[in-house]
Amino acid sequence: MIILFNKPFNVVCQFSTHDPKNGKEGHATLKDFIPIPDVYAAGRLDTDSEGLLILTDDGALQHRLSHPKHKEIKTYWVQVEGAPTDVDLQPLRAGVDLGDFFTKPASVKVMQEPENLWPRNPPIRERKAIPTTWLELRISEGKNRQVRRMTASIGFPTLRLIRYAIGDYNINDINIGQFKVLSV
Q: If pLDDT is split at 50, 70 and 90, which confidence band does 18 have?
């Protein structure tokens, strides 16, 4: 079984309750949205990121979807502060040095705000004097906070991050906080 979940902002990608010592007290978990037993996330999505999270009860499939050696392309919709030009985005296409690793080349382009975009709660901070721009960013990696670090490294901090797709799986027709079960 495969479950495609459109994860809201501020939801932790685990089923267990939180230990107040880890600083996650008060966050919703997958248990608050998915009442299906014995499924596990294939990969992670930061608490402050939204969008596609794949869950499954198949260990081999979980490994294939989450392990970097299988190079599943992940597509993100990224709202950044500022208005990057094509020249500004070129370092992402070449790969950028983030200090602890050098990213593989990304596919990136400016896009229109996604259709049927749900409101984020709480909303992002916007400043009147600084525009925002939506990017479609495709990478085969998925290291900790990688997309946020990539956009910051070229001077355009991420304000909102939505994972739209992993390989052929996407969040089309899945409302925020909802899931779809696929048969395998």
A: low
